[in-house]
Amino acid sequence: MDIVVEATTGSQGLVRFGALAFECALGKSGITGDKREGDHATPAGRFPLRALFYRADKGDAPACPLPTQQIDPLDGWCDADSDDKYNRYVRLPFTASHETLWRDDDLYDLLVVLGHNDAPVVASGGSCIFLHVAREDYAPTEGCVALKRADLVTLLSALDADSQIDIRLPG
What we know:
Elements: E1 3-7, E2 12-17, E3 20-25, E4 31-32, E5 42-43, E6 45-54, E7 68-70, E8 75-78, E9 89-91, E10 98-100, E11 110-114, E12 130-133, E13 145-147, H1 149-158, E14 164-168
């Protein structure tokens, strides 16, 4: 069974998985069928769920069928489209532009890597597309899908080993 994501307004949406339904935040530019690096949009499409990263200092990993890895202060994700590590996990320090996974806020305490633009990676096709914890007010993301922590834990515990995420264009 797939996780289905649909926009309800430009940068907010609804996540459904079977009988479960949760509000979510989307990219500032909504959902797009033509994802580009830096466009602040959430990419439309059906993507595998690659792995769960979590902050062990903030709690145990939720039960789920995904490969699981603890986040530490040296974990990052390359978003420099000219680098050969583009849209890949990296260790810090890293000289090219990157996302730091160990954050001062709670947004990446639980983070699922979506298999967007990774098989193969296409330069400027978009990077760092995650399912992660939302801000309290569901403020827009840079292109990710974000849920309240409790909702994300519930969703993760309900997943099947073959679950994917289906992000749908409006209309």
